[in-house]
Design a protein that fits this description.
The complex is a heterodimer of chains A (90) and B (330). With 90 residues, chain A is an all-alpha fold. Chain A contains five helices and no strands. The model of chain B has no long low-confidence stretch (mean pLDDT 95). Chain B is 13% helix and 41% strand. The chains are: A mainly alpha (90), B mainly beta (330). At the A-B interface, helix 3, helix 4 and helix 5 of A face strand 13 of B.
């Protein structure tokens, strides 16, 4: 799993690390963004429900920020993911 | 890659060739097939190049596109379906079929978004069913081709490898949009509801439906970060004040009753994906087939089984789900 993520990072597209604050902002909804990548849309809605219920504890937000980053990194060769990354971190 | 109806003898020949096959058809036909690299679900409704039709004499065959290969077939019950994403092969995808109303169907519908590694790799598929005249009499089943067994409480998942230079991506085509009426929010996740918040006021949903003559052919629609996700109405029990759905509602998600659609096929055609020649698999919902009169009509050349539920990462309703295989952008 880690090797695949690293391959994505070393490829054409650089994906910022999970500690980048934008990932957490996407998870909490602070950043309003509608991804093209269907899996990211479903993931974000699900984790926002969870984060909302649990009172937005920092460790939960970190966990889901890492999950979202992994989801995009693992699918980094999809055109829609590349478009999303470019828009999120423009 | 072929996606069409075949005689049983021709399906037998394809199976003996050793290729991975995704099949759909009448249970009595599927029971005649030899063992091999195939999975199947029961259903007699199909979208074909000739249009929507009912057929109990042929099997719908979806071959895998060139370069893709079946690398395994797994079965899951209610107790282990949570592993479905974790088990998917690296650089691969899964195609899943689950029997309608089975425990594994209901569990996946309610819990898939919370599974470990949810959506980390593509998982597409459908819910098997029966002829509508046999609802409650016949049992929806799936088949594990490696043993030929018919299953009514387990899902089957074909693991498929994707070659270097190619990428699999899932899409959905949902012509329904949120209407301008009040938001419905539910107190709990589930396939049924009694009291809900409608426009910020607690109301009994069954009573509201009766009072407003809500058109139950139109689903509730939620906005999932831009993706429109439906929950379709199954039944209303006014005596119990309870409404049942074909897919679960989720607490905290605002839903709206869908806007009416003038003509499904016209809307469908105007929203077709750009590269339909790259669609490797698709399925569409029995409710679209029924309510939109798809029998004898074509949907932009897109073919596949008509289903009791669609899977694109999670369970969907009244939606076409599709898989494309394209050249990798990396």
């Amino acid at each position: 799993m880690a090797r695949e993520t690293a391959e994505c990072d070393e490829g054409v597209m650089q994906i910022p690390p999970a500690a980048h604050p934008t990932w957490a902002d996407l998870v909490t909804g602070k950043v309003k963004f509608e991804p093209s990548f269907l899996a990211a849309r479903m993931f974000i809605v699900r984790v926002r429900m969870e984060v909302g219920k649990a009172g937005a504890k920092p460790e939960l937000i970190r966990k889901h920020a890492t999950g979202l980053r992994d989801l995009l990194a693992q699918n980094a060769d999809c055109a829609s993911v590349q478009q999303d990354i470019a828009k999120i971190f423009k | 890659m072929s996606q069409q109806l075949y005689e049983v003898k021709d399906v037998e020949a394809l199976i003996r060739r050793g290729d991975g096959l995704l099949l759909a058809g009448d249970e009595s036909l599927l029971r005649r097939l030899p063992r091999g690299k195939w999975i199947a679900g029961t259903i007699p409704y199909f979208m074909t190049e000739a249009g929507g039709l009912v057929n109990r004499k042929h099997i719908f065959v979806n071959e895998l596109p060139e370069g893709l290969a079946c690398v395994g077939i797994r079965r899951y019950g209610e107790e282990d379906i949570a592993r479905v994403y974790s088990d998917l092969p690296a650089r691969g995808l899964g195609i899943m079929i689950a029997p309608a109303t089975s425990k594994v169907h209901l569990s996946f519908a309610l819990n898939a978004p919370s599974y470990e590694k949810f959506a980390i790799r593509p998982l597409i598929g459908w819910i098997s069913g029966v002829h509508l005249s046999e609802l409650g009499k016949a049992t929806p089943r799936v088949f594990d081709g490696t043993s030929g067994e018919a299953l009514d409480q387990q899902a089957v998942v074909m693991h498929i490898s994707v070659p270097a230079g190619k990428v699999a991506e899932l899409g959905i085509l949902n012509i329904f949009e949120e209407g301008e009426g009040p938001a419905f929010t539910f107190p709990a996740n589930g396939f049924s509801a009694t009291d809900v918040e409608i426009g910020g006021r607690k109301r009994n949903l069954a009573q509201f439906i009766q009072e407003t003559s809500l058109d139950l052919r139109l689903p509730l629609v939620a906005d999932y970060c831009g993706a429109k996700i439906n929950v379709s109405f199954q039944a209303v029990d006014q005596a119990k004040g309870e409404v049942q759905f074909y897919a679960p509602v989720f607490a905290g998600v605002p839903y709206h009753h869908a806007k009416p659609v003038a003509d499904y096929v016209t809307e469908f055609d105007s929203n077709l994906p750009k590269r339909i020649d790259q669609i490797a698999f698709s399925c569409n919902c029995i409710l679209n087939y029924l309510h939109s009169g798809l029998e004898g009509r074509k949907t932009g050349g897109i073919v596949g089984p008509i289903t009791f539920g669609e899977i694109a990462y999670q369970l969907l309703n009244q939606t076409m789900a599709y898989l494309t295989i394209e050249s990798s952008q990396a």
